[in-house]
Amino acid sequence: MPDPLVARLKTMIVETLKLPDVRAEDIPEDEPLFGNTRLGLDSLDALELVLRLEKEFGIKIGNSEESRRALASVSTLAAFIRARQPAAS
Amino acid sequence: MTANADAAAAGVEALDCLTPFGDAAATAAALLAGRRALAPHPVLGPDGGDPVPLALIGGAMDEPVTPRWLAPARELARRIPAGDWGSAREPVVVTSSNFGVGAMHAFTRDRDARHLAHGTPFAAAARLGRELGWGEHVHVLSHACVTAHLGLALAGRLLHRGFANRVLVFSFDFVSPFVAAGFHSLKILNAAMPAPFAARDSGSIGLGDGAAFAVLAAAPAPLRLEAAALHNEMHHFTSNRPDGAGFTACAVAMAAAARGRRVWIKGHGTGTLEAGRLEAEAWRQAFPDAPLVSWKGSLGHTLGSCGLVELAVAAAALRAGRIPGTVGGEAPSFTANVALGPLAAAGFDAAVLSANAFGGAHASFILAHD
Questions:
Q1: Which candidate in A50, A55, A64 is best for mutational testing of the B interface (most B CBs within 10 A)?
Q2: Where are the alpha helices (DSSP H) in B78-145?
Q3: Full-prediction pTM beyond 0.90?
Q4: Which of B84, B129, B140, B215 has its CA 20 to 30 A from that of B322?
């Protein structure tokens, strides 16, 4: 059964970053989100994602190194959120 | 790749700055005492938010209808030598990376059109020019955190191509909630105090208010700016080439220009990890015996004005005979060339001053003295 948090994050990425040619279900869970030519995301995309995540999940990302680790992939992002919001889905 | 360095020197006729500690002499003294101007302030000013390290002149941050930078700029301007500033032969170069960007944000918040009177670089420079009685020959430059370096380089070229007798370079950057929030969104402005060049697990910067001026002339002077080198990596908006080639380009140019001199290096050193590591390593390789310092752990990053503010502090430190170390730094540093404590100026006959910026811009010059 698909992880509802992972699915929600994928949809959020597509919506937040307005990725016109990407379907949420096509974003791989364990591939790098950044430096990935398929998605073509850059540091400004990371900034937008962090702001959306903080607002939507009520979490705080403390510094840029923590942000980089959290945004390594969809899986790491889901784990990061669950560590701070165990009930997140 | 090596950056080209201008061969001509420019004499420094006058120079000073304003920071939360006061003028350049007071600032150098505070740095020598290891004091930090940075203190925790709400990132959004009166609207609150997370506490982040800011070094504020006046102690509070907002964007009032009368710009916060105007009174300090007036105070600093009183120390500028008399001149026909803004005339064809004595032009002014105004540099800032902020100018009135916070005012534009305040306008969107308050819908008060008075904010627009200084809400763009040209409007802000024009307002300053009216206040200080400058003529029409005012150049306005804004190129992120190497802006003041570019202003000094432009002034040097105006002098050496015979377009001017003297040039006034004036720079100011005051933190606004808009700018602080931007850096906070990137998470490089966070709750921690900056520790430039320290090999920590996470990086952080502070932001600071600062203003400074320099009067440059072609005639030789006891204090001279030499060998301005500029380079742009053309790699990325906010990160550097991972091999450090951008930092190396200016460091190698400075090493060639400074050959035979005993130098110390005032680096950029904001407190971010990746850029700090690349910068420290580039200077270590180009100048194996030169100590490297950063003052942004105390003053915060004065953004586009840092090159001129820190030049004024360097000149004051030379006059005092002692050079501040890396205030806020901590062991272990990325490289062994980082100096945490003060240095005796008598051991050196020149300094290399450097800055770098978003967009991969790098700028350095030599501060030579008799």
A1: A64
A2: 101-110, 121-132
A3: yes
A4: B215
